[in-house]
Amino acid sequence: MTCRSLLLPSIIVSAVIAGAWRRGARPAPPPAGPAAGPEEASVSELKALQAKTARFAPVDIEVDVSALPDYERRGLGKLVGPPS
Question: E strand or H helix at 46, and its extent?
């Protein structure tokens, strides 16, 4: 197995581990301001989420995995595919 065939899976696994570690490293901040009703809270949460997601742009990533063995392609599909 070459270093090239291990590069993409290594990067993906590292990103997943780093993301899981960061989520567990800091507690969620308390809600700002006085307690709001369910409808008010959902509107303010929606605006906050929209502001956060506006920072990112969708990107299509294409990778040629034809050189990977079948078992690595299946494993990669489980890492980057939809949750089951």
Answer: helix 38-53
